[in-house]
Amino acid sequence: MSDSTQQPITTLPLVFDEPRGRKKPPPHLADLDEAGRKARLEEMGLPGFRAKQLSNHYFSRLVDDPAEMTDLPAGQRDELVSALLPHLMTPLRTMEADKGTTRKTLWKLFDGALVESVLMRYPDRATICVSSQAGCGMACPFCATGMGGLQRNMSTSEIVEQVVAGARSLARGEVPGGPGRVSNVVFMGMGEPLANYKAVIGAVRRLTDPSPAGLGMSARGVTVSTVGLVPRINQLADEGIPVTLALSLHAPDDELRNELVPINTRFSVAETVEAAWNYAAKTKRRVSIEYAMMRGINDQAHRADLLGDVLNSYGDWGWVHVNLIPLNPIEGSKWTASDPADEREFVRRLEAKGIPTTVRDTRGREIDGACGQLAAKE
User: N or C terminus of the chain with fewer C-beta within 10 Å?
Assistant: First the structure.
């Protein structure tokens, strides 16, 4: 594709609802707040106070074996676990890279849908990248997940379980570096998080609820990405949860972005960036602009200048940071990563305009690091 090549634009629905007619996953304590967990047990004729004990096992002790829940009465243990801790997902395959510090897991959900999560351990932190949908309906042509379309939304508990599973692996010393904990969660796996808004917000609340109601993480350690669902960005700004917003922009002009990110035909670059700026202004949290560098497509010097001008048009008070992403190659795809020299020039031009810019430390290329690649192969 070049600037002069016109591609047919995919028309996307304005409403992003749960696909109908699908059986939902079993209810789990991560889907409920503390009052809801207690009420569910009482509805089943079980003592409500046991809900806090189950929450403690799940979120604080990271236990997944009912036999270890010795404070629950043996005669009721299976029934209690079945009521609030049903089995949600099965690991089909785990691949490792970076001497075991990057672990990508392919999960099979209760209905056979496949999703992926990636746990990445660094010297100073441990980050887990989670999926929010099985597949994706945004149809970005360079994305492995988008190529497969949307199967279904994930539930709050299915999203949270990916984080808890990673936390268990760290706590048990299964990742090189000794026992540790998850410090950061990024909603950058399969799916468009803001198209599954209710479940994603539920998951963010479970991650940030104080232990044992949730994992007790700081909201500042949670990043929610979006390709630019403007009404949902505005809604997120009013939630009162200061997560980091990551806007997957990928192009600074409507002509190219219409091709790379089809939702841009509904919400233009100007509308999308303005929503991101409003988010930063309301939450006092710096927005991350995600920009996948694609050779000969969006990595030209003039586009770096245009991107800087677009972002600076909202002021230079440090509201934004650009995160350049070397494209993870997809087998059989024409999309390739930018030449390192072009990447460096892109950085130089953005920094010359006062835009803080970094190049993402990409991991997991040898284990199909781009989300959706492993599921597509399976």
Answer: C
